[in-house]
Amino acid sequence: MSPTNNETESHGLEGLTVAAFESRMAQEMEALIVRHGGKAVVAPSMREVPLTQNKAAFDFFETLQQGYVDVVIFMTGVGAKTLFKTLETKYAKSRVERAFRKAYMVARGPKPAKALQDFGLKASIVVPEPNTWKQILLVLDNYKPIKKLRVAVQEYGAPNAEFIQGLQDRGAQDVTAVPVYRWALPEDTRPLRDLIDSILHNEVQVALFTSATQIHHVIQLAAEMGQEDQIKDALSRMVVGSIGPVASEALKNYQIVPDFEPEHPKMGFLVKEAGEQAPEIFKTKKQSTPTMKAAAAPSMKKAPPVLKDSLFLKACRKEATEGTPIWIMRQAGRYLPGYRQIREMVSFLDLCKNPDLAAEVTVSAQEVLGVDAAILFADILLITEPLGFQLEFVENGGPVIRNPFRKPDDLKRLNPVDGASDLGYVMQAVKKIRSNLQSDIPLIGFAGAPFTLASYLLEGGGTKDYFHTRSVLGDIKVWDELMRKLVSATASYLNAQIDAGVQAVQLFDSWVGILAPDEFQRLVLPYLKMLIGGIKPGVPIIYFGTQTEPFFPWLKDTGATVIGVDWHVDLDKAWKQLGNVAIQGNLDPQILLTDPDKIRVEAEKILRMAGGRPGHIFNLGHGILPQTPVENALALVETVKNWKT
Ligand code: CP3
Last residue of some domain: 263, 288, 313? Predict the structure, then answer.
C-alpha cells in the first residue's frame, strides 16, 4: 500500500496522490496512476462472496417454500439476480420458480423487474418512478395492504431501517430482511482503514471509484470507524472520479458529487481523464467553499464513435488515420497480475472454456492497456480437441498432445470440425466480449495457420528439431491430405468466430520460419491461399509468422489484408518487399523488459520507419513476454498514442 511515484514522468496528475479501491486489478490500477504522473495508494475494498455462503438467502427460501411468506419485495436488480443464482446452487430452477409464485412479488422499478423476468418470473407489481422506499409503501397501501401479512425484503447494500419501520407500522405480521451479497469487505481491512485515515488527514487529493460497491464499502468501513460524516466531507473536498452513472448515483446517495465521469466507463479512461482534469479541479476546489461542489456536474459525454471507423479497422483497410493504432500480441496473459490471480483459481484450459472468465480477461487487458483492439482469449491449439487429439497444458511447461499424429494411417483419426458447435464455448466468449467491450473497439479472432497447427499435431508439443514434421513433409500425399483437413476445420472455426462477432481475424504461423523458401512456396502457400479464400469476405485477415522475410515475395499473394512481421527485419525494408499491403509490427518483445526511456526510443524508430504511411498497425514482433512489467507495456502504448505523423 505504500505510495509509489515515477520520478521520470511528472505530467498529467502532476504528482497528486490518488486513492483507488481496486481488488483484483490493484496492481494494474497502480501502474496506470503512476503512468499518468500520480502517486498511487490502492487499497482493496471488495472480496467476492461465494454464492453458497449467502445463508440468509437459504433460510428465507425455506420459509418461502413452506408458504410462510406472503409478499416479497425486490429492491435491486443485482440483488435479485444474486438471490436467484444463490438458490440455484442448491435447488432446481423449477422448484425456485414454484416457491416464488406462491408470493406477491413487488419489484422496486425496472431493474429488479427485469431480473425477475430473466429468471422466468413476473413481478405482481412494478413500483413506478421515482422508485423510492416511500413510493413502495404508497403502492402497497393502494394495491396490496400488508396488515397481518408476512413480508420479506431482498436487500443489497446498506439496509434501510426507515423502510422496514414503515412496513412494521402498517401492521405487517412479520418483516424479514434478506440480505444477499455478491461482495463483502476484504478479509484484511487494514489497508483500506489506513487509506481512509490518509483521506481524513487530507493526504490524498484524488479518489477514483470504479464501482458502486467500492463506495458502499468505503462508507461502511468509515462508519465502523465512527467517521462516516468525516469521510463524506473529506471526499467532497477532494477530486472524485466516478467510472459511470451507477457509481455516480451511489456517490450522490452519500451526498458526494463526483467531479467527472470518463468518456467511456473504463479504468484506463478514468485515470487518463483524471490526469487531464484533476489538477485544475483540485486548484479550484482548494480556493472555493465546499458548497460550490454541488454545482459541479460530471463532464458531458461525446457522441459514441463507430466501430468501422476505429483506428485499427481503418489501418487494416490502408486508410489514412489520425494516429497509429496499437495492440499487443498475447496482451491478455501472465504479465498481468489480474490474469495471474484468475489463473490461481483455474487451469489455463478451464479458463479458455469458461466464456465469462475468458471475456473478463480479454476485455480487462484491452482496458488496462488502452490499446486499439482486443484479441479473443483462447489458444491456437483448442481446435486440436475436436480434431481428435488429447490436449493438455502442463503447468509452466506449455502444451502437450498426448496422442500425436505419427503415421499416415492417423489421417483417419482426424475428425471434421464444425466451428460453431464443436467450439461453442469460444463463440459464447466472443459474444460476451463483444457485448462487454467498448462499442468502438474491434475484437480480433484468431486461429493457428495450417503449417504451425500441423507441426504441433506431429511433434506433440514444443520442439527444436521438427523431426516428425520434416518426415511427413517428405510424403506429399499425406501432407496434402493433412493440410486440406486442417484448412477446412480452420475455415469453419474462423467463420464461426466472424458470425459470433469478431471484426478481424489473425492467423498465427509462429513456426513457419523453419522452412526454406521453396518449401514455403510448395508446402505452405497453396494451403494458405485455400484457407484465406474460404474466409467470409469483408473481414480483414492478418497473417503473422516469425522469420518470414525469405517468403515476403509470396506473402502479398496469399490474399491476407495485413502482414504481421517480426523484428528480424526493418519495417521500411519489409514494406518495400511486401508491396501494397497493410503491415503489423514489429518491436522486439525483449525491449519491453528494459525501461520506459529505451522503449520510447525504440518504438519511435519503428514509427519513423513507417513514416505515417496509411496501413501501419503497431505491435510487437511476437507475443509479449511474461516477465514484462505492466508499466513498460503502458509506456509503449503511450509512446505510440503520443506520436504525431
Ligand atoms: O494474444 C492474446 O492475448 C490472446 C490469447 C492467445 C494465447 N495464445 C493465450 C495463451 C493467443 C493469440 C495465443 C496463440 C498461440 N498459442 C500461439 C501463437 C502465437 C505465438 O506466441 O507464437 C502459440 C504457438 C500457442 C501455443 C501455446 N499456448 C504455447 C506454446 C503455450 C505455452 C507457452 C506460453 O506462451 O505460455 C500456450 C499457453 C498460453 N496461451 C498462455 C496464454 C495466455 C499461457 C498460459 C498460462 O496462463 O500459463
Answer: 288
User: What cell numbers appear for 68 in the block?
Assistant: 410462510
Does 70 lie in the same domain as 177?
A: yes
Among the listed residues 259, 330, 509, 543, the single catalytic one is 330
Count of C-beta atoms within a 10 Å radius of residue 338: 22
Question: Any idea how long the chain is?
Answer: 645
Task: Name the E strands within 475-516.
Answer: 504-509
Name the amino acid, one letter, at 587: L
C-alpha cell at 493: 472455426
Q: pTM for this structure?
A: 0.74
Burial of 62 (0-12, 13-18, 19+ CB in 10 A): exposed
Task: Looking at the structure, tell me whether residues 88 and 165 fall in a common domain.
Answer: yes
Q: Which residue of the set 456, 493, 527, 543 is catalytic? A: 456
Atom of ligand 1 lying closest to residue 510 CA: 22
Average pLDDT estimate for 562-584: 95
- Assign residue 277 the CATH number of its domain: 3.40.50.10090
Determine the Cα angle at 10 with ends 6 and 15, to 5°.
80
Cβ proximity of 338 and 24 under 8 Å: yes
Domain identity same for 270 and 313: no
Chain mean position to CA 479: 39
Q: What digits encode the pLDDT tens for the residues 114-127? A: 999 999 999 999 99
Domain count within the chain: 3
Examine the residue annotation and report whether 330 is marked as an active-site residue of this protein.
Answer: yes
pLDDT digits (tens, 9 = 90+) for 443-479: 999 999 999 999 999 999 988 888 888 888 889 999 9
The alpha carbon of 498 and the centre of ligand 1 are apart by a number of angstroms equal to 21
